[in-house]
Amino acid sequence: MGKIWTIIKWEFLQRVKDRLFVITLIAAPLLVLMVGTAAGLLSEASLDYTKVIGFRIDNTKYFNSIDNRLNQLILDDGQPAFIGVLLGEDKEYSQNSVDCLVRITEIENQFIIELNYGYTLSPLELNKIEDAIKTGLTENYIKKQNSEILLPKFDFQQLLKNQSTSTIDEFNKLFFAGFAFLFLLIIVIIYSGSSFTRALAEEKNTHINEILLSSVSPNEILFGKYFGLALLGILQTLFWFGFSYMFFGGNSTHLEIVTNLPLLIIYFFLGYLLYSAIFLALGAQVTTENEAQQITTLTSLFLIIPVVISAQIFVSPDSFLSNIFTYFPLTTAPVMLMKINFSDTSASEIFLTILIQIISITVVIMIASKYFAKGLSQFNKKTRR
Predict the structure, then answer these.
(1) Is the pTM of this model over 0.90?
(2) pLDDT, tens digit, 9 for 90 and up, residues 108-135
(3) How far apart are CA 320 and CA 299, in angstroms?
(4) How far is CA 290 from CA 11, 198, 239, 294, in A?
């Protein structure tokens, strides 16, 4: 155990003292901050135009009241934020011709409102549309029954949205928290994995591993390097969260409403430990920096899959596609980081996905220990000459 701890310290301190690591540790959050801020401003500007809201409703007096309320909402340039259009049941329309289709059905004193919308509408705009609908319907519905005022009830059904939060503000915070953990996981894994595999290739070509193997066992080297890499990832994670808190304040991570914060942390570190074990197993087999780069690129592609299907996960977290990547070990942690706040995840699903990650880590380490010694003894023949 003493030798493993010595290797852990050596592996960790060697990486931390690297000038490039220190520069990247500081420069990467700054770059992400600038790009994220610019992208946010540009995306807001590109969606800041008059939206067309199509209505299918039997009673036109309801539509007129709702349309009047929508017309009161103005953009910064003085243009109307929304334009209401009345659509008949038998009237065809193009999906791209309206930003939101609203179907209103009246049953006794209850209105069932279905909102079918695309991604051109922000959560704040959807909130404004709902308020306009409620106000417009209430103005024309108020009835008296037995000398008492009878107000309508509302049942909103957002067909392309799956969320259980009570306010738009909470929805935004939960979205940011889950996606922030995913983004951080991708950054830390890609950087740590690439630097680690390149370092393994360099150590082979300088024959450092041959010296280590003369005094310690291959498994001691394996676990020493593995836990050293884990400490490096923890340092990067703490630095990023500290950086975020320093620039944005306590609201940057929205920890006060993230009820699943312990699970987010568990999935984050399980994902990191799994990919670290994979880089350790594959990195021991490379002999050149080019091979190390190729392995890092191919392995990191699995981290991009959850980002590509993120829209499908948010809209339908229990779909067949979402479930496939939920239980596929290399994408389990990234997918669960997004699903955990936006779907009613059962205790059995949480238990099973965590178990899959633990078993996967164990299997990869067992495979790595079997071939690690042979991999360490390999070297670049061109360098040897």
Answers:
(1) no
(2) 888 999 888 876 777 778 889 999 999 9
(3) 24
(4) 22, 9, 29, 6
